[in-house]
Amino acid sequence: MQQSPSPQVTRTRPDEEKADISTVPLQKLFAQLESSEQGLTGIQASKHLKKYGLNDMSGLKHTAPLLHFLHLFLNPLIAILLIASIVSAILGDAVDAGIIIIIVLLSNVLNFIQTSRSQNAVEKLRADVAPTASVLRDGKWLELARREVVPGDIVRLTAGDMVPADARLIQATDLHVQQAALTGESFPVDKRAVDVSDTTENFANAPNCVFLGTSVVSGLGIALVTATGQQTAFGDIAVRLASHAPETEFERGIKSFGVLITQTVFFLVIFIVLVGIIGHHQPFETVLFAISLAVGLTPEFLPMITTVTLGQGALRMAKRKVIVKHLESIQNFGSIDTLCSDKTGTLTSGETRLEGFVDLLAKESKQVLLFGSLNSAYQMGMKSPLDEAILSHGPIDMNGYTKVGEIPFDFERRCLSVVVQSGDEYLIITKGAPESVLARCTAYEINGEQKLFADASDEQTAFVKMYCDLNSQGYRVLAVAYRVISRQEKYQKNDEQSLVLLGFLNFADPPKEDAARVLQTFKSDGVQVKILTGDNELVTRHVCNQVGIESTRIVLGSELDHMTDPALAQVVEEANVFARVSPSQKNRIILALKSRKHVVGYIGDGINDAPSLHAADVGISVSTGVDVAKDAADIILLEQSLQVLHDGILEGRKAFGNVVKYLLMGTSSNFGNMFSMAGAYVFLPFLPMLPSQILLNTFLYNISQVTIPSDNVDASYLRKPQQWNIGLIRNFMLFIGPVSSIFDFLTFFIMLRVFNAGETLFHTGWFVESLATQTLVLFVIRTAGNPLRSRPSLSLTMTTLFIVVLGFVLPYTPMAGPLGFMPLPPLYFLFLAAMIISYLLLVEVVKRRLMRRYA
Ligand SMILES: Nc1ncnc2c1ncn2[C@@H]1O[C@H](COP(=O)(O)OP(=O)(O)OP(=O)(O)O)[C@@H](O)[C@H]1O
Ligand SMILES: [Mg+2]
After folding, report:
1. Domain coverage including residue 227
2. 852 burial level (CB within 10 Å; 0-12, 13-18, 19+)
3. Membrane topology per the record (predicted)?
4. Residues 435, 579: one domain?
């Protein structure tokens, strides 16, 4: 942390009697503070942790892995199936029941292991970017995970931090806190370590308390934590803020898919039970058959496959320096078609250099540099790249000036002031965007001589021209102004008036070398980039020209204020560059883009970016960004680079592509199979497949799918943003399902007529056929193009072929007896080969049509 010069610290002993404001008795906490200035000891801290729980909204509740596992058996279908098998075992058919139970167990074990493995891996990644707090423990300042903060801890607050818990200030220096989330007031509120007797009225405004859910805009504070997690005063608001944005298209899609399947399962079960009652079947057998079919139909591995695919995507992204905070956001990440970005640090290097400090005659001026430096050095907000540039310009003698006050920067005013004492005089020194500063000036100073601006003065026009010329050459410009002010308890925004304009600071912030090239790759991959910057239009245009962003039309923040939402929606479609926009205007632009059905990504690293990071479909921040921004983001880049972001987006598309493959498989081939089964049940004198065989079939099929997350995705698929397409999935079910049924019925016919099959031969023949067609069709469905041109991953090929071969050899193994199989006549395999080939060809034809329609 950067130590600010001469912080004037006010220090008060808190009065415990009067300020009992939290759920934890303050007396006790302060007593501990008295006894040591060391913070809590590790032992005390862990005691408190046990007592008050983790500092997050979930409290200490952590479901044990065993519970997770058992949860898998709570699925009603699985529960009924298990009960039914136990009954069946008691009634006599112990072998069959045993097989069913074993398969269910194996399925759940596989499911559980896969899911928890990828969840753990993702959890680890997330821990690396988890928010931290600066906490005093055993006399040392530590960066601890924010959830480990406990009541009684002493925490340190600096600009850009999120307040980690409810706390009472012990020390504060020019501390300003943004608590819009609590009070709606967007201008930072100042906080002091004072004693207050009455804290009951308008609690959030208590000047000596800071709250979870707020953030530090400027200044320093040291505070004693009084409440954490669910015990915090405004915890519920914080929960709402932290809680994830509305569910994504993908999550909605998965849900509606689930509903579709449940309905189908429901009707299928009723259908079979009815047929069973009317027809010739034993009731118990019927029930077991119906339930096995239902289990076969439900894509029970769907959550697992989604988690594993997204999890592997997250790991691959991490290798490319992109950390995903919420797995679900990967899908949105791959769907981004519009990327909104700020300018500094993303397009430009962010290593801003101070190039000039001039008076109003455009001559180099030591006073402009001195006043600029005083302002930058004494302000305790986030040091912007502009401040860093001023401070790294070289040593400046600031002796004789002590700081007495500050009016922090905000993105609406675009300027900031410090008040310094020099001798008996107090000066307010303001620096900021030239138009903002000029608007607050009534005079100007040349060669030490002050003159008032006349109304509509020529001088004013001349000064405007001065900075505009610099801007057009690509320089960023700040104006510096000052005036003599009286000693006041507190300085406020309206003290920034009647200022005297002194001169300008100009900065170079050249574009990144690879920016133009990377922007081109975004374009060719279907992502349009829009620039939303707080900087002015001249500088912005200059940078845009250099990196090849079309900027004939630059929309200004001031124009936005006069636009209705529908008009804005039109404008955001056409314009690529928005300059001098405030945080709330950035937010409006994003909402407007969303209203036009764009999937919007927003990348930003500042306090001012937090609202937009929330509003966008995917908020992207950088590991060096402020806590507030990282908190609001879904994705964190370990390097502020558009290239990294681009790579990440492609990984996101890949993960999404693989989840969709699984769904298409589940809805088409698997679904068709189960359907044929129900159909066969109507006319066959025996069950078309035994319940245990159905489950084995599904289990093996599922195993073949477990490697889908590792599969390659076609380059053509990665070339454009991908969106959830329930229409495609539904039509796959409606068209590809029946295609597989055609071949199933053909198999039935041949089994019965050509091979005169009895029950066991029939079961065996169909088992082998259905397993082979069901799994091999993956090679067709996994690509929108020609399957021979698209290479599947090695592991996917291996598992799929292994399962097919396993199906072929099972009837010849000792397992055949218990499973109810018998060897097949050799002629059958000839027939099977013909079937498989024509099936795959037919699916290919239908697939092409469907894919083209939904492309
Ligand atoms: N520390 C500062 N002191 C004075 N003025 C500042 C400071 N930081 C920013 N400004 C003014 O506020 C304007 C907006 O800030 P800034 O450029 O950081 O906004 P932004 O929206 O984050 O844009 P970007 O990141 O694209 O540059 C700047 O152009 C500058 O005029
Ligand atoms: Mg910025």
Report:
1. 8-243
2. exposed
3. Multi-pass membrane protein
4. no
